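Posting this for the archive.
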Amino acid sequence: MAVVLFTCAGQRVDIVSAFARAGATTLAVDCNELAPALYAADRRALVPPVDDPGYLDALRALVALHDASLVVPLADLDHRLLAAERGALGALVLLPGPDTISLCEDKYEAHRFFERSSIATPPTWAAEELPDELRFPVLIKARRGFGSRHIYRAADRRELEFFLGYTSADSIVQQACAGEEFSIDVFCDLDARCLNAIPRTMIESKGGESIKGMTIDAPDLIEHGRHVSETMKIVGPANIQCFREPDGSLPVTDVNPRFGGGFPAPTAAGSRYPELALALAAGERPEPRLGEFRAGVLMTRFFSQIVLHEVAGAFEPLHEAPIGEV
């Protein structure tokens, strides 16, 4: 069984468990011993924080110790480092190259890239180069933000000036889209060929993560996901956020080169993205299967927990009796 190392495991029990169901031996790592996904994995380890000089060496040692063949980052925190060093870990790192990571991190540069590539993108300006005339509402966004942090909506010039003075983040200003928002969960091979693209509605989100949404059969969004991911040279998973505007355009507002927060929806719809990742790690070259998924799969997420207790100085899951039993 292939060993898959998950970095920044955090709360992503859903992803770790899906890879286990796909046949992998799962190894979750985090700097926090209370990260829930650690205890959902077959194996676990603590590592230094991402900004610690010893972080990369710790991952390299774990890859060697466990003979891991695949490294899957579960958060944005270590993308830049792992993309730059992806040939030095001794396993396939499921990330695109540094240039693509830089585009995904910098919303203003991504906007300029989309314009050059004739991909629809909302009008966007750096905070210091705003035109005299703006069509409101606009959004003030952190240029390198994630998780919906430092995002504000301004209805007029007064509110815009207030939020630009209020925010502590280097910001961009973006025209607010008027249409319906969608997410497209894509997966690309090592040559940036899109193997599948699964659109879903954004019924409700909290903290930047989808908690309610439904997979849909939308050929225009499937093709859009393919085109955007291949143009950006995505490798592995990515989540593309876009709007369908009244004029029929599909402006892209964000691309996250990782499994999205709505991962359970495409997984339940038959994405087989964990299986595709394992195939890439085994040196295989799967063929694209665009449009092969089940539409109408509705996801509604909820809080859950893993209960721990201390055993011989370390935390272990406490397997509680079901409610009503003693």
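Confidence is low (pLDDT under 50) at residues 321-326. The longest strand covers residues 180-188.
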